[in-house]
Amino acid sequence: MASPVSMTSFKIIFYIFLVMISISFPLKKCDAASEESLTQHTTSFHSVPVRQLSPSLNCKSTTSAGPTGKSTLKIVNRNGACYRGESSKLTLSQILSHDKSRVASIQSRLQASSTSNTNGLILEDRQISLPNKPGNDLGTGNYVVTVGLGTPKKDYTLILDTGSDLTWTQCQPCKKFCYPQNDPIFNPFQSSTYYNISCSSPQCYLLRHATGHAASCSGTTCVYDIQYGDESFSAGFLAKETVTLGTDVLPGFLFGCAQNNQGLYGNTDGLLGLGRSQISIVSQTAKNYGRVFSYCLPTWSGSNGYLSFGKTGYSVKTVKFTPFSIFKPSENFYSVDLVGISVGGKRLPVLPTVFLTAGTIIDSGTVVTRLPQAAYSVFRDTFKQQMKGYKLAPALSLLDTCYDFSGVDSVNVPKISFIFRGNVTVDLGANGILVPVSETQTCLAFAENNGPADLAIFGNIQQQTLQVVFDDAGRRLGFGPGGCS
Ligand SMILES: *[C@@H]1O[C@H](CO)[C@@H](O)[C@H](O)[C@H]1NC(C)=O
Ligand SMILES: *[C@@H]1O[C@H](CO)[C@@H](O)[C@H](O)[C@H]1NC(C)=O
């Protein structure tokens, strides 16, 4: 314990030190600083009307649509104002709690050297426990798209997931358990193009790699079983069906006719697997679209987001590409090399190795961007410094930097850019920086990782309004501004 005397002498020394610092950097520094803050306000800050940060948003029906290709689908946020499905809308605290589970699952999946579970669970044997507590939800991102399935085609609203591979929809007769969903549940007996896949077929073997679980059999039908986390799962028959993307009709698509599903899927009809393994929709449609898709995730009040398959879905002029990671490659996720971050036009003093050691993935289903601890602390402190004119508010869950903007008309928010390998600088949209919680609480929408081995995740709030191009054939990821609003 420090005695009062030594505390005092410490303070005195400290003040002398401060005085010496201010003396050794005379007036010139003040000039530079004020000059800088002038230019910063024009070029390095977003001026955001506080109205726009209000948690009670209206759906903006925009006329400017994204690309209008044949294979372009509309994306909406299932917690946003433009989602017309029956509401299971979540509060921000609930969204953050789900986000923690998703990230914990991703981190453990990536860190486990061999995660495959050889239990080969058989559908008939699975113990069904009805949802009485929230599940862990790797599969429950916030953005949904509508795809057509069957002949005649019916529409299903599926969660967009770049972090998993098998596409599934809840399916009659729901042998074990189907949660309530908005659309009538898919009925294989009403489609002329549905076929069960046999458990001896080579396609059934693809499941092991794609789901981490060996397939099993029900009669002669191949049974898949995916666990997204401790509690969230889907199991059912592997089947072949005609899928309709926009106006493109594609026969023979492998998907899950889901018979037992539990987790935080909301009232959506299932999941669209946009991952990299052979069973993902990206791989299965390779001959049609060349393993390229792009999307724009709209803001929570935006209505013109899109998912587009093929090379024509994005603007070649404005999209810049960074190669997939060579330092931390991933089979399952889209990994890239983040090397730096700028805040308010200034590159943070964080060495690229801080990011490269952890590695970075982009994920459509993680909400809040996660950064390595050593980078996050510098990032947050710089942001706070540049926002020091605003009143702080209490933290919320994993968001530790919050502001009270009540009584303020418009806020100057520092621009934030991510810098990827190849000097690809991606300026985040103004909506990708702060997230509104209540009238008196708006938080910086970034969080730090729990451990040094955890990788960075480019989350979906920060991806909002960007054109993001997933070019698995060219092993590169592209970013462009102004894809949607
Ligand atoms: C698919 O296989 C399962 C399990 O054998 C069976 O219950 C179901 O009726 C089959 N579906 C069709 C459409 O044949
Ligand atoms: C990286 O890009 C920025 C602008 O985007 C530019 O100012 C800078 O000079 C570039 N650096 C290198 C090393 O090319």
From TrEMBL:
The family line of this record is:
Belongs to the peptidase A1 family.
Domain of life of the native organism: Eukaryota
Keyword Signal belongs to the record: yes
Name the keywords, alphabetized.
Answer: Aspartyl protease, Disulfide bond, Hydrolase, Protease, Signal
Indicate yes or no for the key word Hydrolase.
yes
Name of the protein described by the UniProt record = OLC1v1029476C1
Which PANTHER family does the entry mention? ASPARTYL PROTEASE AED1, ASPARTYL PROTEASES
- Where in the sequence is the active site? D161, D363
Tell me which InterPro entries the record gives.
Aspartic_peptidase_A1, Aspartic_peptidase_AS, CND41-like, PEPTIDASE_A1, Peptidase_aspartic_dom_sf, TAXi_C, TAXi_N
Q: Which organism is it from?
A: Oldenlandia corymbosa var. corymbosa
GO term, biological process aspect, one = proteolysis
Q: Which residues form the signal peptide?
A: 1-32
Ranges for domain Peptidase A1 come to: 143-480
A single Gene Ontology MF term assigned here is: aspartic-type endopeptidase activity
